[in-house]
Amino acid sequence: MDGDLDFFINHYWEKEPDIPRIASGVPNRVDRLKCLGNAVVPQQFYPIFRAIAEAEENRKKYKTIIPKNLSERITVEYEPRDCDGKILWAQIGIIDNMLFWKENVTYQFLEPYENEKKLKKEYEKHRKNITEQTCQKYRILEEEKPMRRLYWSKHGFYADAEYVEHNG
Questions:
Q1: CB burial readout 33-65, b (16+ within 10 A) else e
Q2: Environment class of residue 160 by beta-carbon count within 10 Å: exposed (0-12), middle (13-18) or buried (19+)?
Q3: How many Cα atoms sit within 13 Å of 57 on the Cβ side?
Q4: What is the rounded CA–CA span in Å between residue 44 and residue 146?
Q5: What is the pLDDT of residues 121-162, one digit of tens each?
Q6: Residue 74: which residues within 8 A CB-CB, separation 6 or more?
């Protein structure tokens, strides 16, 4: 180890590289460096970090879930819209006696059902909505689309944050 350190100290740069140690000829170099050093101050970050902390605290007030690995899942992707080229998708499936559904332009929902008969009836209704009762061309996807974090609503089901914010 001492030999390696000795080589580094005494022989590493026997010949100085042709790289200037400071930027020479740059107008207002010192003023620019001072400006960069003073450009970001803690007071600028405080509101951002406070907002993040508040958002996390608010999220903890809700019962949440991120659904995944749906059984009996059907995921469809529609052709791009003529107006803006956006590709819409829809997905339904079952997880723990709850029905996940998202039709092409709706929020995402996860509804619990007390009995399997009602669950299957609602599943079939949403399946028809996304596959049979649409005038849009679509294709069925093999992969499951990632689902958002859903929040328990006052209506007795999980829904997108935006839905819960506006509808309770």
A1: eeeeeeeeeeeeeeeeeeeeeeeeeeeeeeeeb
A2: buried
A3: 6
A4: 34
A5: 999 999 998 988 778 889 999 999 999 999 999 999 999 988
A6: 91, 92, 93, 127, 130, 131, 140
